[in-house]
Amino acid sequence: MREEIGQEARYRHSIGVARTAERLAMAHGLDTRRARLAGLFHDLARLWSRDRLVAEARRRHLTLDAFALVYPVVIHAPLGAELARERFDIRDEGVLDAIRKHTLGDAHMTPLDVVIYLADALEPWRAYDGRAAMLETALRDLGAGMRAVLESTLAHHAARGLTPSPKTLACARAYGIAIPEELLHA
Ligand SMILES: [Fe+2]
Ligand SMILES: [Fe+2]
Asked: Using CA atoms, how far apart are residues 43 and 2, in angstroms rounded to an integer?
């Protein structure tokens, strides 16, 4: 995996996500091995160029929506799931789905999807205000952790004039979050 990723910072992040996912799974009575595997392999395509992401996704007949064509970096999530299967023989569809949903979230999230989404945002190598407190929240209550991370993500988008993906908005709505007005017309 370290060779496949090819960069120490991204490798370190992947280990951080695997360990954080394992902690979250343990705290909430979920399968720690599945959480660790999904965390380990979630970012296999994260360092690929835009052109490579689009080309490799097309080669595998992955569906690319309008958002993915404008922001190809998000393709690393569904493509990462394909690489986990092809190169590491991961066959567990629940693990692969958690990898697919880790960047944008989704209207429908299983507990494992949630664990990986949160671990990606909250692993210890990520440095931003409020991270540790949000991780404590997530260890106590996955739903509260999701609301905290999604609210902070939407606030970040609003502050920078960025458009969130329809999947992230659907995910936020599923958690009962009021979407900031300026994001609805972005
Ligand atoms: Fe990622
Ligand atoms: Fe990541």
From this structure: 11
What is the assigned CATH class of domain 2-184?
mainly alpha
* Contact present, 99 and 116 (Cβ < 8 Å): yes
Averaged pLDDT in 10-residue chunks for the chain of 186 residues = 92 98 98 98 97 98 96 98 98 98 98 98 94 98 98 94 94 94 76
Q: How far is the CA of 45 from the centre of ligand 2 (A)?
A: 10
Instruction: Please give the Cα distance from 20 to 36 (Å, whole number).
Output: 8
- Cα(90) to centroid(ligand 1), Å: 18
Q: 141 CA to middle of ligand 1, Å? A: 23
The predicted model scores a pTM of 0.97
